[in-house]
Structure formats: C-alpha cells, structure tokens
C-alpha cells in the first residue's frame, strides 16, 4: 500500500554505496529524523553520510498523517504526574520549538510542501473532564492550549483542547528539498555495526560517530531497546472531496477517529493496537461505514497503515545509544508524533555530536529511568514478549529472525507480524518492517 505522499511525490534516486568510505558521522536511516539530523550537522560543518536500505522517505515517514504539532494526545497532564512538572515543561517546549522550526526552514528555503498553519484539537464525544485537566496542565506548562466547545467536525462534541500555532504539510515534498545537498546512499542495507564500522551489503563505512535513525534500532545489545519499546499499528483512509474542517483533530475516546484535510481531500485515521494483535473486525470496513455516514458523497481514493514505536513512559529516546557506546546515538520511540519528534531529535543530536549540551538532554535520554511512568507498560510489554517467544518454540511455528518470536498473520494487512517487537513480512517472506533485518524463507 502506498500513501498519498508516496503517490504524489517523486524524490530523485540516489546511488548505492560502492566500496568502503570514511566520514565523520554516518546516519542509518533516511527518514525525517535521519535527513534532518544530517541537515543540521552539515550546517555545523560536519561531514555526514546517510545510509538507507530502500529509498529516501520510504519508511514510516512516508506513512505518517504529517501533523506538525506539540499536541501529543492527552500527554501533559500525564507527564506532569509521572515525571514531574519541569520535565513535562521541557518536553512541551522542545516540541513547540520544533513546530516553529519547520515554519522557519520552509520560509527560509522557500520549500513548496503544502505547508499550512492549522490549529490542533483533541476532542471527546463522551466527556469533558479529561480535556479540562489537559488544558489546565498544558497552560501551566506554557503550551498554547485552550478549551473550546465548538468545532468544525460533522458531529457534536462535549469539548476539545485546542493548540494554536500548529501546522501540517506533505512530508516527502519537504524531505525531497531538504535532502538535496546531503550524501545519501540508497538501497544500501546495514548488516552490522562494530565499533566505528558500519558494515553494509555494499561496503564498510568507518565513522567517528554513528546515529541510529532507522525507526526501531536493530542492535539488541547494548541498549536493550527490545525490552523497552513495542510497536503499534493504525489505519488511514483518503477521502474526497471533503470540505475543509479548519483544523487537525484527534479523538481521545476509545475507537475514536482522527481528521485532517489535504489538497481538497480528507485523511481519516482510525484504530491503534499493538502490532501482531490484529483487531477482531476489519478496520478499513469500519472506516468505510463511518465515511459513508459522515461524508456520504466522498470517494475513497486509497488507504494505508502506519506503524509507530512506543516507549514505556511515552517519551522518545534521543541521545547516546548506550553508556557502553558513547559514540553511538539514537532517535527512536516517537509514538504517533514523528514529525515534531524528528525535529527535536535532529536539533538535539546535532548539538550533542558537536560537543554541546541542550536543556532537554536528561528528559529524552535513553538512559533515563522513569519507574513510575513505565511500570505498567513494562509489565504488559514483557508479558507479550514472553508469550511470543514461548509460542516460537512450538513445532511448525513461523518465527521472526529478530529474536525468534512466533509470527502472526494479519489478515487485514496481508502480512506476517511479530507480536513481540513489530517486525513485518510480506506474504512472500520479504521483510517490510524492522527491527528484524532478514527476510523469511518463502511461505506458501
């Protein structure tokens, strides 16, 4: 399945790596986070090489709904309680500055990417209490939040949290322009990282610093990201023509929808579940029924799925990969908010790699320990991983090459999925999503 961004944006092909190279920094992954990190490092005068297993922007950056926002669901009230007011404030400030930085870059370089300023809304059709709590916390933390009772949605709501000064765009049009002066080697698969050597199927790149921006880190030890992250899947449908709703909307109720317009169309989002645990009913059929009810004259153009890395405390991991690998860096665990998080990561990592500190280092540090915020999800994630690994030892199991968990067939997405860490494989066995690096043997 291709997204609207993939079908509407043609990024010129880049050559594959040929032979061995040496550079100051090598970045693994040419999505939004990897490309932006390379962009800012080059502005600092650092020589950078980016390695991409497929095409620029072909990973999760190509499947996003591309909301540039610091409104990350009902997060500020939660963070204030779980990690403290100051960490919650810094989290919000970093993301709001990221939103503003996109606008500055797009204006400075005259990037044509369907960029639009849009307010962001969290709505509920059931209650307003949790929305009012979120508004209070967000405002106290310095976020541009307010509570409203009226929206442009085609149904009544109990209320909504509005964030002003947010935006949306076409992410691949943006990546196309911002990557034009960056050295990217496409169709160059990283097989292994040893010390300062990045070993690919086309040669070895030796670098002083290494950045893992490949969505889910494929190196298990050190770092142990497999023990502190899982992946979630959600679904998107493109409809049109649909009248502009004058904002970007996300429902906070169970089985709620998200809405955002693009070029006369509507991107309808739905569903969120752990990868490898398919829903009981086809989410696309559910979305069609809703679309027929709310937008009965709209035509369905295409649909696709998105997959996101979820951390245990809802904060991305940005910084040093491991205390045992001080020259390795990572940007992962963006949840559903990859656009603002990619910018936060790029700004932070470019500073850290050039020997500077930021006020946000401790908040996003992969070495942090937020026991209170992580305990429940840690137990749930551990249980799912144990179940998947145990099932993998049974005769006849189709196992994931990452760590041996038993794969599940997703009948709606028509692919094999790992319930432990979210790797995906086409029906032929070809790998379509990491952290696994190898394809499966042919599966009938």
UniProtKB/TrEMBL annotation:
<keyword id="KW-0479">Metal-binding</keyword>
<feature type="domain" description="Rieske">
    <location>
        <begin position="400"/>
        <end position="444"/>
    </location>
</feature>
<dbReference type="InterPro" id="IPR006076">
    <property type="entry name" value="FAD-dep_OxRdtase"/>
</dbReference>
<dbReference type="InterPro" id="IPR005805">
    <property type="entry name" value="Rieske_Fe-S_prot_C"/>
</dbReference>
<dbReference type="Pfam" id="PF00355">
    <property type="entry name" value="Rieske"/>
</dbReference>
<dbReference type="Pfam" id="PF01266">
    <property type="entry name" value="DAO"/>
</dbReference>
<keyword id="KW-1015">Disulfide bond</keyword>
<protein>
    <submittedName>
        <fullName>FAD-dependent oxidoreductase</fullName>
    </submittedName>
</protein>
<keyword id="KW-0411">Iron-sulfur</keyword>
<keyword id="KW-0001">2Fe-2S</keyword>
<dbReference type="InterPro" id="IPR036188">
    <property type="entry name" value="FAD/NAD-bd_sf"/>
</dbReference>
<keyword id="KW-0408">Iron</keyword>
<dbReference type="InterPro" id="IPR036922">
    <property type="entry name" value="Rieske_2Fe-2S_sf"/>
</dbReference>
<dbReference type="InterPro" id="IPR017941">
    <property type="entry name" value="Rieske_2Fe-2S"/>
</dbReference>
């Amino acid at each position: 399945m291709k997204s609207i961004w993939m079908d509407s944006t043609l990024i010129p092909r880049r050559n594959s790596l040929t032979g061995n190279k040496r550079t100051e920094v090598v970045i693994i992954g040419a999505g939004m986070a990897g490309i932006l990190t390379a962009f800012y490092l080059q502005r600092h005068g650092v020589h950078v090489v980016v390695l991409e297993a497929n095409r620029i922007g072909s990973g999760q950056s190509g499947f996003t709904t591309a909301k540039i926002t610091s409104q990350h669901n009902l997060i500020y009230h939660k963070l204030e309680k779980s990690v403290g007011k100051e960490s919650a404030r810094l989290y919000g400030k970093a993301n709001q500055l990221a939103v503003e930085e996109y606008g500055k870059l797009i204006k400075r370089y005259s990037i044509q990417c369907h960029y639009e300023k849009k307010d962001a809304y969290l709505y509920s059709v059931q209650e307003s209490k949790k929305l009012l709590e979120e508004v209070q916390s967000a405002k106290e933390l310095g976020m541009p939040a307010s509570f409203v009772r009226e929206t442009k949605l085609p149904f009544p709501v109990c209320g909504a949290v509005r964030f002003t000064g947010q935006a949306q765009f076409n992410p691949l049009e943006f990546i196309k322009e911002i990557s034009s002066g960056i050295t990217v080697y496409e169709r160059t698969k990283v097989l292994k990282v040893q010390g300062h050597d990045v070993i690919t199927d086309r040669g070895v790149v030796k670098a002083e610093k290494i950045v893992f921006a490949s969505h889910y880190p494929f190196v298990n030890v050190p770092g142990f990201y497999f023990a502190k992250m899982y992946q979630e899947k959600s679904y998107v449908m493109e409809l049109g023509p649909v009248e502009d709703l004058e904002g970007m909307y996300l429902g906070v109720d169970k089985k709620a929808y998200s809405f955002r317009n693009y070029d006369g169309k509507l991107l309808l989002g739905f569903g969120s579940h752990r990868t490898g645990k398919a829903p009981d009913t086809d989410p696309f059929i559910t979305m069609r029924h809703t679309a027929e009810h709310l937008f009965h004259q709209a035509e369905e153009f295409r649909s696709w799925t998105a997959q996101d890395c979820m951390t245990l405390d809802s904060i991305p991991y940005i910084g040093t990969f491991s205390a045992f690998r001080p020259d390795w860096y990572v940007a992962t665990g963006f949840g559903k908010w990859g656009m603002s998080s990619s910018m936060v990561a790029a700004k932070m990592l470019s500073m850290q790699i050039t020997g500077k500190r930021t006020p946000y280092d401790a908040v996003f540090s992969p070495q942090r320990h937020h026991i209170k915020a992580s305990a429940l999800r840690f137990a749930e994630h551990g249980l799912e991983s144990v179940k998947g690994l145990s099932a993998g030892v049974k005769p006849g199991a189709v196992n994931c090459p990452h760590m041996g968990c038993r794969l599940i067939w997703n009948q709606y997405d028509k692919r094999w999925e790992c319930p432990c860490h979210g790797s995906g494989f086409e029906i032929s066995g070809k790998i379509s999503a990491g952290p696994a690096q190898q394809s499966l043997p042919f599966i009938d």
